[in-house]
Amino acid sequence: MLFVGDDWAEEHHDVELQDETGRRLGKARLEEGVAGIAKLHELIGRHVAEGVEADQVVIGIETDRGPWVQALIAAGYRVYAVNPLSVARYRERHSVSGAKSDAADARTLADMVRTDRHQHRVIAGDTPQGEAIKVVARAHKTLVWERTRHVQRLRHALREYFPAALAAFDDLSRADTLELLVTAPDPASAAELTFEQISAALRRARRRNVADKAAAIQVALQARHLSQPEVVTAAYAASVRAQAAILATLNEQIKTMEDQVEAHFGRHPDAEIYLSQPGLGHLLGARVLGEFGDDPDRYDNAKSRRNYAGTSPITRASGKKKVVLARFVHNDRLIDALGAQAFAALSASPGARAYYDELRTRDVGHHAALRQLANRLVGILHGCLKTRTKYDEATAWSHRTEGEPRQRSEKTSKIAA
């Protein structure tokens, strides 16, 4: 077998090749792109015996995506995506000086896949369709997060010079709110807005109870508040116009990406199974599928899927001390989606609601209870995907209605909130 460490950067890759004894066979710095990957294939070819299969070449790299990684997988190599934290800890096993270089990291990665690859995971063989869902779902969620950031910036600016706007508009990301802020971004011009102007903006945004809402907005905008000097107000008004324009564009692009997510997700063969799960719709389902991937052999069992999700707890035991804690190292996008699913499942699934209520009666905090519920739902999803069956409420929670002990261990009930 041949072991390759690949320390990647934006413009180049440092690689080192080792045999099964750890002897260095070669090293190089390769440029990113077609020319670089061709040189890597050539370098590997010089040290692999004729007739040896490509999967006898094992590569460690600190990423699981990108054209370079896809080219390695397409060549048939066994590619391990190694967490950079693991690489840093492994480096400290052999050197405490703190020295670091790209070439040394390539050697560390080669050592890791040579001696400890059983502790790491081969990059999953997700289908192109599953990869496409991950791309559009991540893009959609990123835009949503960006909108939230810009709303907070807009709110901060309005609080500084135009508090009447915060009293008038309950949602700063709405189309009617943004239109009115662009039209009248300062207290003086906003107070002069007519009932008809406000009503027209509400109707274009397809709001209900237009007359009542327009009257309430007009009253709030005409109320007296503390103000800033005129020149400062004008500066803030210019910044608010810019923020409103950015938010309007984000709203448009979020809707566009939402359509893309639904279109890609709807064509996936696992879509029906995901949509049958309580709390999952097209958007959340696409996010969960994209982050888990669709390789049917990626997770050996429900426990490994829960561990990857970050919903299962970890135990720290030393001597007489033993504590159970939530995982703080996890896929942020996946844990966010699973938390949203668990919250939605409280209304969609009687079994999920009963489990959550039971946890709360044992003094488990709200967030900890949702995390434990999400952990259960991940296990249910794993079973449905393995058996290729849709979610069934009675089957999913039958173990709880058939006499499962209601008293849990003290360890479980004290999982850190």
From TrEMBL:
<feature type="domain" description="Transposase IS116/IS110/IS902 C-terminal">
    <location>
        <begin position="275"/>
        <end position="356"/>
    </location>
</feature>
<dbReference type="InterPro" id="IPR002525">
    <property type="entry name" value="Transp_IS110-like_N"/>
</dbReference>
<feature type="coiled-coil region">
    <location>
        <begin position="240"/>
        <end position="267"/>
    </location>
</feature>
<dbReference type="InterPro" id="IPR047650">
    <property type="entry name" value="Transpos_IS110"/>
</dbReference>
<protein>
    <submittedName>
        <fullName>IS110 family transposase</fullName>
    </submittedName>
</protein>
<keyword id="KW-0175">Coiled coil</keyword>
<dbReference type="InterPro" id="IPR003346">
    <property type="entry name" value="Transposase_20"/>
</dbReference>
<feature type="domain" description="Transposase IS110-like N-terminal">
    <location>
        <begin position="4"/>
        <end position="163"/>
    </location>
</feature>
<dbReference type="Pfam" id="PF01548">
    <property type="entry name" value="DEDD_Tnp_IS110"/>
</dbReference>
<feature type="region of interest" description="Disordered">
    <location>
        <begin position="396"/>
        <end position="417"/>
    </location>
</feature>
<dbReference type="Pfam" id="PF02371">
    <property type="entry name" value="Transposase_20"/>
</dbReference>
